[in-house]
Specification:
Layout (H helix, E strand, L loop, with lengths): L2 E6 L3 H12 L6 E7 L2 H10 L4 E5 L10 H11 L4 E6 L4 H9 L4 E4 L7 H9 L4 E2 L1 H8 L7 H11 L4 H8 L3 H15 L4 H13 L2
Parallel strand pairs: 1-2, 1-3, 3-4, 4-5, 5-6
Length: 207
């Protein structure tokens, strides 16, 4: 029986290339049953089409639903039997570790050749993990730890507090709070506030 796969990515070239690799040889035993180019489209597709493995980009900003760790958390909650392979160009070791804690079966670096993608997909279907060589090397390196004050700021942000609110409650200046936030984002390899909130949500979802 063919291994049913869904692919999600907001770049048409990646969708076509990934589908082509999995469909190149029928003897590989894959059946791509659908593709999506947004988080919204992905969840609409999953509601209609069952699959065993989902190959998904980490960042798909199109659509109304959140991407990143928030998306993965929802996938794990609503579709626990689907094995996930994240296809991305992530640079944050913190986020890679969060994805593993959340039960993602594959971490595949888009900067590497896609030749190993069939193997990663097959392993995921067997509930076995695949991690790209570059991500393995990154995960072997220690995290740049967040300070206690940086963590405090992130947790308060996760509770919906503004920089001004955090400054008042912690008896620090808004400038100091902003610096803690900026330092944390640099350590995590994040650029946008939405990505930072996704990271915090992912940590909470993974326990």
């Amino acid at each position: 029986m063919d291994l049913k796969v869904i692919i999600a990515d907001d770049h048409p070239v990646v969708l076509l290339g990934t589908s082509a690799i999995l469909n190149a040889d029928p003897r590989q035993g894959f059946k791509v049953v659908g593709t999506a180019n947004s988080v919204t489209g992905l969840f609409e597709l999953l509601a209609q089409e069952p699959c065993r493995v989902l190959i998904t980009d980490f960042s798909m900003p199109r659509g109304e639903l959140a991407d990143g760790l928030t998306m993965v958390s929802r996938l794990r909650r609503e579709y626990p039997d689907i094995q996930i392979v994240v296809l991305s160009m992530l640079s944050s070791t913190h986020i890679l570790r969060s994805l593993l804690r959340m039960g993602v079966m594959g971490l595949y670096n888009k900067n590497e050749t896609l030749a190993e993608l069939p193997r990663a997909t097959r392993l995921a279907g067997m509930k076995r993990r695949y991690i790209s060589p570059s991500y393995k090397r990154k995960l072997e390196q220690p995290n740049d730890p967040l300070s206690a004050r940086e963590l405090e700021v992130l947790r308060m942000m996760a509770n919906g507090l503004s920089g001004r609110d955090i400054a008042q409650l912690s008896h620090r200046s808004e400038k100091t709070v902003s610096r803690h936030k900026r330092n944390a984002m640099e350590k995590l390899g994040l650029v946008h506030d939405s990505a930072l909130l996704d990271y915090i949500s992912g940590l909470d979802a993974s326990g």
